[in-house]
Amino acid sequence: MPRALLSLTDKSGVVPFAQGLVARGFELISTGGTARTLREAGLEVTDVSQVTGFPEMLDGRVKTLHPLVHGGILADWRNPDHRTQAEAAGIAPIELVVVNLYAFESTVTAPHEFAEAVESIDIGGPAMIRAAAKNHANTLVVVDPADYDRVLAALAAEVPTSFDPLRREMAAKAFRHTAYYDSMIGRYLSESAGAETFPETLTVGLRRTLSLRYGENPHQSAALYRDPLTPGGVVRAEQRWGKELSYNNILDADAAWELVADLPAGACAIIKHGNPCGAAVGSTLAESYKAAKASDPVSAFGGIAAFHGEVDAEAALAMTAVNNFLEVIIATGYSPEAEDIFANRSGWGKDVRLLKAELSTDDPYLTLRLIRGGAVAQTSDEASEADWRVVTRRAPTEEEWAALRMAWRIVPHVKSNGIVVASATGLLGVGAGQMNRVQSVRLALEQAGAGAAGGALASDAFFPFPDSIETAAAAGVKAVIQPGGSKKDGDVVARADELGLAMVMTGVRRFRH
To answer: Could you read off the pLDDT of 137-146 as tens digits, one per residue?
Structure first.
């Protein structure tokens, strides 16, 4: 009689699976709560302690760590030496290992004490999974309840032609399972110990949350993955309405959400192709949206709108106006009336994706960008006003300070070379992704038009020459904010003084590549 060892934290589907194993002639071996669940379902179960001859010890820390268990899992029964040694030691084969692990992820992503996290680290489970995965030619390993039906079908096949590929597939999945698990433990303990941000090896476990129809272009495949230890973000958003999200939708929604989280409550931000084309704060969300759209109505068409607040009926009606089209709307919530407006709207309203998300925080987190053959990692771009200083003879007025802060909040979300022209209440013009800063300045001022007069201009990096300051002043800009740090800072400041501009240097560059 073949033997199956079952030891599970997630017991979903285990009873019908175990019943299927018994129907196929398996003896069930189990531990603790899993054995109890199976017995309550009327199944006959052998406790692991009966196999090993030892009771569970040390509050359950030691129960399966025994040669009679691991020998049965690891022995290669095709090898005569293994068979001889195992028989001499009284070790019987274990042909199937069904194990998933202590809920470490659930523990550390909820309120907890450090001791609870430590006790949620599974030892015996990973050992059995890895042993079975290594010896998958003899011992089939199953870590995911979603695979139970496939395994039963393969076991039942008279000529299981797919069984060997299935064994290898399940082994690969098992190693991914333990690698993901260990990556969370490693990161959690590193953070708890105050270890360096970039250790000698970096392991980041990601869980797939969404399979996408295609990637950036239709010929590319794609999926969305979530980092369990980094809270917030679009990746955890709840889709309330609309067709499925695309790869580009997710990237733009993330850009919009990160920007609007940096803006005051009641703000709206509109993103197109990864760059802001509108941002504003009005007396209502509807007014914020209208003002944000007015920044660049042409680019706003087909964009992504994000709201720092709950979308109400007035805002929904503003977005469903004639000749208006949005791919995604993301907000902290939607009133029932707002959802009804989108659900009952004909045309584009039937397809627009409504996402509900928690506001992102300004807590630093690790960012990763994969490149061919590796990755670059960095801490997220979080900055304060601590080092800001007025460097011109004229200090900004109160209104200019408000415009400078608005522009500086937006410019980190613009691809370099990034220039933003803003008023106290919103975005007026953007120059993004140009190979030289002067061209970005010209584009931002051109988009701002007459609105640039009296506005503020932000640059994500220093001005190497005074020419951009001259161009801004000619358009009526009255205040400039920039990091500083150029060898020509003195010339730039002197020219700003000659032109009557106020200038603030932040000491912090805000590139976005």
So the answer is: 899 999 999 9
